[in-house]
């Protein structure tokens, strides 16, 4: 449900304040980007929403326990824009770390990550388990 716009007892709102005022917006101070995890026969695909981020903003590692650790940090310059200064500046993600427990069948040696179109994609292939051939040995009874 969207909140109703309040005009602070003014019959006609000030156009400038109406444009830059944010009383009518619902703010969430979430710092964690949305993550999707997809499983198929070949492996797992992790999709992390990362608008405006580049590959330099990410560090993807495996920790000592073999868990996937995603670090994201976007450093914003404090310099003003050459053509003006910010009246409002909102960025949802500045620093983020997520540890993902990997399943037992994850092939930790062949994990791949790339950033494309505002999304970090991590491909985690499954270990191809080949069933051991059943071997029988006849033992001679003496």
- The computed structural class is mainly beta
* Strand element count: 7
What value does the Rg take, in angstroms?
Answer: 26 Å
Please list the strands of the largest sheet in the order they lie side by side. Answer: 1-2-7-6
Biggest β-sheet: count, sense, barrel?
A: 4 strands, antiparallel
N-C termini distance: 85 Å
What characteristic shape results from the CA principal axes?
rod-shaped
Order of helices and strands: HEEEEEEE
Regions with little confidence, pLDDT below 50 for 5+ residues = 1-7, 15-29
Question: Mean pLDDT, as a whole number?
Answer: 78
What fraction of the residues are assigned to beta strands by DSSP? 25-35%
Q: Can you give the helix content as a percent range?
A: under 10%
Number of helices: 1
Please, could you describe this protein's structure?
The chain has 142 residues and is mainly beta. It is built from one helix and seven strands. The protein has one helix spanning 15-20, and strands spanning 35-39, 43-49, 58-62, 68-73, 95-100, 112-116, 119-125. The strands form two sheets. The protein has a four-stranded antiparallel beta sheet, with no helix packed on it. It has a three-stranded antiparallel beta sheet with strand order 3-4-5, with no helix packed on it. The longest helix is centred in the N-terminal third of the chain and has 6 residues, at 15-20. The relative contact order is 0.21.
């Amino acid at each position: 449900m969207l909140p109703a716009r309040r005009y602070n007892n003014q019959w006609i709102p000030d156009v400038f304040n109406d444009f830059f005022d944010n009383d009518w917006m619902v703010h969430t101070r979430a710092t964690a980007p949305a993550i999707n995890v997809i499983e198929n026969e070949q492996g797992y695909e992790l999709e992390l929403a990362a608008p405006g981020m580049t590959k330099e903003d990410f560090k993807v590692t495996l920790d000592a326990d073999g868990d996937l650790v995603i670090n994201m940090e976007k450093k914003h310059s404090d310099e003003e824009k050459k053509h003006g200064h910010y009246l409002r500046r909102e960025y949802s993600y500045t620093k983020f770390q997520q540890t993902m427990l990997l399943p037992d069948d994850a092939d930790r040696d062949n994990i791949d990550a790339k950033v494309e179109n505002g999304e970090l994609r991590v491909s985690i292939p499954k270990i191809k388990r080949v069933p051991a051939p059943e071997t029988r040995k006849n033992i001679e009874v003496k």
